[in-house]
Design goal:
- The chain is α+β, with helices and mostly antiparallel strands.
- It is built from 4 helices and 8 strands; from the N terminus they run ααββββααββββ.
């Protein structure tokens, strides 16, 4: 009878020990998932995403980018001008994988045709530098070479604190031709 009580005690203690260690393992797993699941940080930079898109394209020149943060996921949209085509690549900000690509024939649209063999004085890096000098604390979300009213411009979207700023920068003169600033107060 004494053996039976000892055996039951050992079995009970062993079961409790196993249950406790399972709870600890489960708790640590939940913590790891929570800390990694809540982050929206991208492991890729805009420059790395541009490089990835250029490698995929095989030729051409980057004329724009956009960084989107949706559902805790960063996606870069990189636009490349390659002869008569505009190529667009969506790059996963975590893995660097190409999520989607599409090619647009620029000869089909009157305004888009102006991008083919276009000459402009300010390249993408120069436009980015000018925008950063005017808004040093802002984050550029979109910077894209485009045609507006027969003029080559950079279409720019940025955020600075609670301000959303949209502007057009002339690709030859560097002048801001249009600027719109919205704050939280403007939205209500």
């Amino acid at each position: 009878m004494k053996k039976t009580i000892k055996q039951k005690t050992v079995i009970t203690l062993a079961s409790l020990g196993l249950a406790c260690s399972s709870v600890v393992v489960f708790a640590n797993t939940a913590k790891a998932t929570k800390s990694t699941g809540s982050t929206t940080q991208s492991s890729l930079t805009v420059e790395q995403a541009k490089e990835k898109a250029l490698n995929e394209s095989k030729s051409g020149q980057v004329i724009g980018y956009e960084q989107e943060n949706k559902s805790r996921k960063t996606v870069f949209e990189i636009t490349i001008l390659d002869g008569q085509n505009e190529k667009e690549y969506k790059i996963d900000g975590q893995t660097g994988d190409v999520l989607k690509s599409k090619t647009k024939d620029l000869t089909k649209d009157k305004d888009d045709k102006q991008l083919i063999n276009a000459s402009y004085k300010i390249d993408l890096a120069g436009a980015e530098s000018q925008v950063k000098s005017k808004y040093p604390k802002a984050t550029i979300e979109k910077l894209q070479l485009d045609v507006e009213n027969n003029t080559l411009v950079y279409d720019v979207s940025l955020t600075e604190g609670k301000k959303e700023i949209d502007l057009e920068l002339d690709a030859n003169t560097g002048q801001i031709v249009e600027e719109d600033i919205e704050t939280d107060k403007d939205l209500f």
